[in-house]
Structures are given as C-alpha cells and as structure tokens.
Specification:
The chain has 432 residues and is of the alpha/beta class. Helix content is 50%, strand content 7%. 32% of the residues are buried.
Length: 432
C-alpha cells in the first residue's frame, strides 16, 4: 500500500544507480564518482548544485555502496554538539567494523568554527563526510575543509530527464501515483517538464498536486499543471549563485553588444523577483565601466531609466530600464575610463600622500603667497587655444604618468585626436 503521508518526490527517490536520472558527467563508467560507487569505496565529498538535482539521493547511494550507516544533519538546525554526537556514533560503528556516513545538508550555513569541527573526524576516517550545498563552496566553505573533500558539481536536469521521472511516477504502482486510470496528456507532460525548471522535486510535487485536482475523467491536462504551478517562479536566490550568475550574464551581454541576450537575462531577473532598482543601479555602472566616453550619453540614459523606475514603478519603469539596456548593448564600447580610474586609484594607494605641486595650490592669504603657493601658475583660458602647453599637473614622482588612453571607438576617437593634438603642442613648447 502506498504511504500517502510521504510526498511523491520522496517516495520516488531512486533506490539504485540504474534508477538515477541525470548527472552522467559524474556517474558514467570511468568517472570518479561512478567508479567509487561501483567498487564500494567512496570518499568524503561536497555535492554542489541547484535544488532537486539529486544531492541527497546520491549521498544515500554512497552510503548503500559502502554499507555505511547513514546519519544526517541539517546545518540550519545543528551545531557542534550534534557533530560530536555523530562522531561518537562513528567511533562505535568503527569498533564494530562498519563505516558511518554523515550527510550534512545546507553545509554552507555552518560557520567557520562549526566547519572546523568536522576536520579531525574526516581526517582519521571516523566519518565519511558528504556535504550538500546550493552555494559556491569556494566562497562558503573554508580551505581546511575543502582540502579534505572532493567537490562534485551537479547540473540542472534537462527536460528529457524530468520527463523520464514523470513517466516513472505515472507508471509505478508501488511508489508512484498509484492510479491506473490516471492519464497525463502529452501537452501537460511537456508543460510540466518546462515548469519544473530542471528541478526533479518540483516536477514530482507539481504532478502530485495536479493529480489531486483532476476530475472524474482522471485526466491531467495542461490547465491542471498550470493551476498546480500558479505563483511559481524561475530559480532565483537573491544573494546566491543563481543571482550573481544572472547579473553577470546581463552585464557581459551588454559589454558584448548583444541586446537580445541582454534583454533575456534582464527578463529572467525580473521573472525571478529581482528588484528593478538593483538592476537599474548596475546598468548605470555598465555605462561608465564598458561604454565610458565612447558614448557619454549612455550614463544619462541609465540615470533616466533609474529615475523612471523610482517615479513610475512597474511595469512602466521596467520598460525604461529595458530601453537603457538595449541602448547600451548597441552603442560603441570603451573601458578606457574604467582602466584609467583603476590605475589612478592604484597609484593613489601605493605612493602615499604625494604633495600637491606648489604652483597648483591656492593662495588666499599673504603667508601662502609668500611661500610660493600658486606662483607661476598659468591660467589656461589666457593661453593660445585655451591650453597651457607644457604645463605639469601631476606630483613630481608621477610626472609623465598616463592613465586615460582613449580607444578608436565612438566619440573617444575624437577625444583621442584632441589629446594627440594637445600632446603635440606640449612637444612644441619644449617644456615636456
């Protein structure tokens, strides 16, 4: 009899490797994790991947392959005391000739001290450690722990793999939906595989809810699937890897002059629930970092879009941001200002407090004038062409330093021509 108190996603959890769907890059013959399972000699590891990709199931399979007792902790609720209790259980099992596998879900939520508590037990083999995380281990786990485990990256499940899981749930009378009369329309199956967004747990949960909504005809149609999925959003976790991956894709699409791709990633962020004002702020950053003086109008377009979002809200403001994104993705690009600023900041940090040249200082008092402040300063407006050819404006230690190097793109080409002309005037003056 089917235990209806357990969710369908839990009932359909694979029991053997041949039932596992996806992650062939890890489990195929010859792959390290697949080989470890095949020979029954697993190792400590961290499984990093999106929700619903099989991290917990893989951990259980590792325990079964090693004939190890499976212990589990959730980093959301556990602490060092729980880790020590698990280690005590591990020592008892080792004395009895059996391994102990400790599975730690959401391992990234443990702080540094808690992570360090695992180290001696992993080191001496008391515990076979498997951590699961949706966040980048490079940022969330300390180096001491990472040096003792192997990190495996799990991928989002493809629609074809989700479809096979759904088919199994429909056909499995023992663990699945358990109703031979229940039918899933092909169009509903396709909608389900798309709405699952690569998450096996989501797919099976939606199927279970849709099955509960069907009428006497026992047919699950597209309408039922969409009803079950009402209110769902694409994968998006503000502050998590998915969030930063999306904003990175948006920024790089603008930089790469790909307006269609930029609009897609922008839409993905909105669909995921991102605050449009955050995107507007990043778009203004793009104007200076990637366009700069190749088209100075980009900065104003970005600021206008930001202001439109603040004044109008959604959806009118979101359209203004789309306007700015497509403009910036389409105009000439230059990172000359960005590079120049970074180089100037590096010099400011590394050269200490270099004195302002005396001729550039203001002299509002007699004392300051007597000390030479402002002496021999040349007022550019009174010079030919409005330019004091050969004048120096940097500290002596940085004399001749050049930060801003305009490109040959957009307006910067004209700026480059003017700066080259001014440099020629400097040469003619004989003062440089």
């Amino acid at each position: 009899m089917i235990d209806r108190t357990r969710p369908l996603a839990d009932r359909m959890r694979p029991r053997h490797l041949d039932e596992f769907v996806g992650q062939s890059h890890l489990l195929a013959p010859g792959r390290p994790l697949g080989e470890a399972l095949a020979v029954g000699r697993p190792h400590s590891m961290v499984l990093w991947g999106p929700p619903g990709t099989g991290k917990t199931t893989l951990a259980r399979m590792v325990a079964a392959a090693a004939d190890a007792e499976f212990l589990t902790l959730s980093a959301v609720m556990a602490g060092v005391k729980d880790i020590r209790e698990s280690a005590a259980r591990g020592r008892a099992n080792r004395e009895a000739g059996r391994q102990t596998l400790l599975f730690v879900d959401e391992v990234h939520r443990f702080n540094k001290g808690q992570q360090d508590a695992f180290l001696p037990y992993i080191e001496d083999g008391t515990l076979l450690f498997i951590g699961a995380t949706t966040e980048n281990p490079s940022f969330e786990l300390n180096n001491a722990l990472l040096s003792r485990v192997r990190v495996y990256v799990l991928r989002t499940l493809e629609a074809e793999a989700i479809g096979r899981l759904v088919d199994s749930a429909m056909a499995d009378a023992e663990r699945g939906l358990g109703d031979a009369r229940l039918q899933l329309e092909p169009a509903a199956r396709e909608a389900l595989t798309q709405l699952a967004d690569g998450d096996a747990r989501t797919a099976l949960s939606l199927l279970e809810v849709a099955a509960d909504l069907v009428g006497d005809d026992r047919v699950i149609g597209v309408a039922r699937i969409r009803e079950a999925a009402a209110g769902g959003r694409a994968r998006f976790d503000k502050g998590g890897d998915a969030f930063y991956d999306l904003i990175s894709a948006l920024h790089k699409s603008v930089r790469g002059s790909a307006p269609d791709a930029a609009l897609y990633w922008y839409a993905r962020m909105l669909e995921g629930g991102c605050d449009p004002l955050y995107i507007a702020r990043r778009v203004v950053r793009m104007a200076s970092e990637d366009i700069g003086n190749a088209d100075p109008r980009a900065l104003q377009v970005g600021l206008d879009a930001w202001q439109a979002q603040e004044r109008l809200g959604s959806p009118e403001g979101e359209l203004a941001i789309a306007h700015a994104i497509t403009y910036m993705a389409s105009v000439p690009k230059s990172n000359a200002v960005y590079n120049a600023f970074n180089q100037a900041m590096a010099d400011a940090r590394s050269h200490g407090s270099l004195e302002v040249p005396v001729h550039l200082r203001n002299a509002p008092t007699k004392l300051m004038k007597s000390l030479g402040y402002g002496h021999a300063y040349r007022y550019a407006h009174d010079e030919p062409h409005g330019y004091a050819a050969g004048e120096h404006y940097l500290p002596e230690a940085l004399s001749g330093r050049r930060y801003y190097r305009p490109t040959e793109r957009g307006l910067e080409r004209r700026i480059a021509d003017r700066l080259a002309w001014l440099a020629a005037l400097d040469e003619e003056s004989g003062q440089r």
